[in-house]
Amino acid sequence: MWRDAALVAGKDLRIELRSRVALNQVAPFAVLVLVLFAFALDPDRDVLVRAAAGLFWVAVLLSSLLAVQRSAALEANDGVADSQRLSSLDPAGIFLGKAAAVALQLAVLEVLLGVGVVVLYDVHLKGVLTLVATAVAATVGLAAAGTLYGVLAAGLRVRETLLPLLLLPVVAPVLIAATRASEAALTGLSLDVTPGDWLRLLAVFAVIYLAFGVVAYGALMEDS
Q: What's the angle, vertex CA 51, arms to CA 45 and CA 56, rounded to 5?
């Protein structure tokens, strides 16, 4: 399983490096979202600083839709999905590999957006370890859920519009928990619920979707 996961992840990442879709489309889109928020809320800098965590994760979530759609599209072209079904690759390995490739792209994007938040919103980081833990848990959850729903929508003609409708309600808890967990680290505001509680929620979400993907991805591939 792990060998197959490494093969699939390497394949997806090599395709992205050669096509530069993430660099030329997803990253500029994410930065543009941050810039638009900065222009919209700039007259009230206090509101902008307080909302920095939420705006950051909204930008990540919207960008993750593009990354997941791109990952699913790679399997829809040139009969790749049919070839994978006929190959000896472990479906769990395929799932883990594709999720790992999406997670790595999102991690690089989050570093870029983090720099953008500090520069554009004049935010001072107050809890780097909390931010890193939040980013890891949220990224794994987004990548796992996105990969699952990506294969569900892959066989449909309207997958470009259906995927956001399927995925956004599911990852709403990730957006809420990640925002609340990183608020104190970005703004220094005291919270009624500690960041650790939100981190545990993110970890549970990530584990559930990873486990479900390992078990069910093969059946989902066949149905799609």
A: 115
Global pTM reads 0.86
Its sign, for the CA torsion 78, 211, 21, 29, is positive
Neighbours of 184 (CB within 10 A): 19
Asked if 144 and 92 count as a contact pair (C-beta separation under 8 A), the reply is: no
Note the residue count of the chain. 224
Given a contact cutoff of 8 angstroms between Cβ atoms, the answer to whether 149 and 212 are in contact is no
> Distance between CA 99 and CA 13 in Å, rounded?
11
Over the stretch 26-68, which tens digit does the pLDDT of each residue have? 888 888 888 888 887 766 677 777 788 888 899 999 888 888 8
Q: How far apart are the first and last CA of the chain?
A: 21
In angstroms, the CA 72 to CA 159 distance is 9
To the nearest 10 degrees (0 to 180), the angle between helices 91-121 and 52-76 is 150
DSSP state of 155: T
Distance separating alpha carbons of residues 152 and 81, to the nearest angstrom: 12
Distance in angstroms (rounded) separating the CA atoms of residues 20 and 127 = 33
Q: Which of 119, 112, 133 is nearest to 198 (CA)?
A: 133
CB 224 within 8 A of CB 154: yes
